[in-house]
């Protein structure tokens, strides 16, 4: 294999990258970015890697979630608080069900770039570059908005820093009450046929928290610091490499734009630029694995990815996020599990039940059905159990807001309801209630059987 450098990806084919018309501006913008302070630190990255290593062997459980794409305009206090709140509450439900410590990782503070199926979008008004996420261009369909602007990378970096700054402050204070079910919005529970069971879960979490507080005489928020780590798809390589650095007293290069970057399904080609870039960074990394290859091709793909990205079997280094869809998971997942096993190395396996279950309604709205998402997760849990393999986590597109983007759930949202509160510019997300309900439903299923 050729020697890695922070620029060696430039010699490979980089797909899903915007065509910046002004190359001088690109050089100038990435130069400025490279001089900025990092967003995260190498010791946080190493701490997360250790926790992921435990998740891979069933001692912890990863909860990863957030928007499909963050938008610059939603970098607001309430949106950030609500996202932390839903992740924290889901994590408590999962701790309760799984009896495992939960690692909370947001798809936030940098999830601004999106792969698109076509470089251009054609409308009656004409043809323009596709919208690649706020870090690249703007969604409005006019030439100025859609022209990729490298200075938006600086704006994305700043939004990430602002988001992280607020998250860190919330963790250090002011966030305490969100532990307690008394503060959760649970009106939806009574709409569910499982209302009694859900009330029992919530009461039991409340009792455990009160018990711990009585026992120790201090509030839960003071006993255990709530950690949140960040992740995003490491798609936009000029941005990722500008924030990749050597740090004093550590060996190697760290991508300091996020703790846990992942490679999307569309950019995971073994000879492509993304795999080249990711192989040289010291962060824990994930790769999305979906039905883009057939089950019989999976062993070869898995073997190559593991060889390149995980040659030393370093604990916590590699995660595969599988996203096969509820109709295909039984066909693919056993093959993936077997292929990973055959490499002889330890890989964390996580289920993303969102990206294989996207539909378009008759009126042309992109949505997902709660029951399909749940079905993929339940099948994945059962398949892992029957293969004696570890499902080490889940990956959701969700928001703490009251949006209507996915149908179903206790309130039974229908296709007609989607018009009322559809805000995502890309994929549909579970709303607050649907996300909490999903956590309750899978927590039961993940409960230890002994
Ligand atoms: C995503 O996570 O938003 C995404 C595009 O996923 P995938 O690469 O799995 O399609
Ligand atoms: Co998405």
Task: Name some characteristics of this structure.
450 residues; alpha/beta; TIM Barrel; two-stranded antiparallel ribbon; globular; binds phosphoenolpyruvate; binds cobalt (II) ion
In brief:
The protein is an alpha/beta fold and 450 residues long.
Please characterize this protein's 3D structure.
The structure is a single chain. This protein is an alpha/beta fold. It has a single domain, classed as TIM Barrel (Alpha-Beta Barrel). 38% of the residues lie in helices and 13% in strands. The chain is built from 13 helices and 14 strands. It has helices at residues 23-34, 42-56, 77-98, 143-146, 152-172, 195-216, 220-223, 237-242, 273-279, 298-309, 329-343, 370-386, 432-446, and strands spanning 60-66, 101-107, 120-123, 126-129, 229-233, 244-246, 253-255, 260-263, 285-289, 318-322, 348-351, 359-360, 366-367, 393-397. An eight-stranded parallel barrel has the order 1-2-5-8-9-10-11-14, surrounded by four helices. β3 and β4 (126-129) form a beta hairpin. α12 packs parallel to α13. The chain is globular. The mean pLDDT is 95. Bound molecules: phosphoenolpyruvate (PEP) and cobalt (II) ion (CO). Phosphoenolpyruvate (PEP) binds at residues 68, 115, 233, 264-266, 288, 290, 323, 355, 427.
